[in-house]
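It is worth pausing here to work through a concrete case rather than discussing structure prediction in the abstract. The textbook approach is simple: state the sequence, then state the predicted structure, then interpret. We follow exactly that order.
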Amino acid sequence: MTPPRVRAALLAFVLIFAPALASAQPVDPIGDLLKSAPPAPSQPSDEDEEAGGVDLDLPDAAPNTPSRPGPVSVPGQRVLVDDHNRTPEPPLTSAERGYESRIRAGFSAAENRQGALEGRWLVRSQAGTLYAFQLIDSGSGTLDGAWSDPRRPGALTGSGYIRSASRSPDRLTLSFEAPPHRGAVQLQLRAEPAGQWSGVLSEDGVEVSVRMQRD
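Step two, the predicted structure:
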């Protein structure tokens, strides 16, 4: 049995500290964090959407301005004051002038080395054009080239290379294979004034009088 003094002490303790214990609340750290967090952004209401949406204060987009083309150099033409999109051709440097003169000299020398038969020729009879030749005359005695048959355009056997060629100052003989003709087709010509040639074309043993002239 509790002594009277102890009971009196307990009763006094309860009377003194009971109000403080009743007012004390348990600690809630998660609740404290939620209370200190910033408020969530408000969602636009239906009234705001009907009124035209919410102004977000976005920066204005820069307009797309089309790029203007720069000046264009037009070789060989005068440039006037009002030609804003053109510039005069810049003068050639000394190195460029030297390079151009060497190119012209080489081209002229190559032309001078070509023989009189260089170029494209047509062989015609009374029936029309029989063959076309592209001759390469090096000027040193060699002659080469290719032939085509305009009577058979687009045919796989309608063109080819000259097999043999021989010439003298006034005579020219060409020989080439031209299927479906049997054997070689032969052209024997003699020089005429004005740079033309005349003679005989032989195909499958049949000879035809022809004339060869530049195309």
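Step three, interpretation. The chain has four helices and eleven strands. The chain has a mean pLDDT of 74.
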